[in-house]
Amino acid sequence: MSKMYLYDQRNKRFAQKLRREMTPQERHLWYDFLRACPVQFRRQKQFGPYIADFYCADAKLVIELDGSQHYEEEGIVSDQDRDAYLSSLGLQVLRYSNTDVSRSFSSVCEDIMKYLK
User: Fold this and answer.
1) Phi and psi angles of residue 80, each rounded to the nearest 5 degrees, phi first
2) Could you tell me the pTM of the whole model?
3) What local confidence, expressed as pLDDT, does residue 79 receive?
């Protein structure tokens, strides 16, 4: 994977802002699971024009947490474009709704661990 596909200077400040202002579900997943995971994850990782919520380089895995806007027509199309771009870089994308994280946190964690093994 070429570095030029991974970093877009225009997104640097936005990614930093997203790290500071995580959603409650992102905070929960990060502080209560991913941060202590046996493989290293990064928050708000840039990939060209996109910023992934969480990224594990060892597993080539992107984890996205989706709010309600992702289930509207425009959000669905945007996510398909993003997933296609990330897949073209050899990355696997796992998507969970904010509701999944809030109501079924242990199931989300188990699913992520299944993928990592």
Assistant:
1) -65, -40
2) 0.81
3) 85
